[in-house]
Amino acid sequence: MRAFHDVHIHNYLSTCSGDNGATVESFRSLMQNEVLKSYSDDIPVSIAHPFQPVGSFPLRDKMVSLISDQTFGKLFTLAASRGIGLELNGATNSPEVFRMFGIAKECGCKFTLGSDMHARGEMSKVFGADHCTDYLGLTEDDMMNFTRG
Questions:
Q1: Distance separating alpha carbons of residues 30 and 32, to the nearest angstrom
Q2: What is the DSSP string of 86-121?
Q3: Which of the residues 37, 38, 57, 64 has the least number of beta carbons within 10 Å of its own beta carbon?
Q4: pTM of the complete model
Q5: 36 phi/psi in degrees, rounded to 5
């Protein structure tokens, strides 16, 4: 049974991550979507938990580890050029996620803070994002314009 589980997890990861994985292609196609771009010209657009498909949180760090710095660089340069931000929340606190968002910062991406709230009472999770903002040394200039004080 354990071997089946390991194969299943490996197959899931191989379809979701890596430089040609579905997660990378999904992000790329989202950044190239002209409708989304037209929205981001008029209203703030920020992507919640990038490279973490819904329901995949236990696998997030492994999935992110499979994506190269170069691939992240290309994708985040595209996001920055389109004015599309990235959300930081209370779950953005692991070395792999710090690596990913560090590359995003180097590429000129702007950030928002969120709670990734899915139930009443989870709004306080927004305060957990400080681990990532501190680690990356984010300043007000790294935030999307609409979030600045």
A1: 5
A2: EEE-TT--SHHHHHHHHHHHHTT--EEE-----STT
A3: 38
A4: 0.82
A5: -60, -40
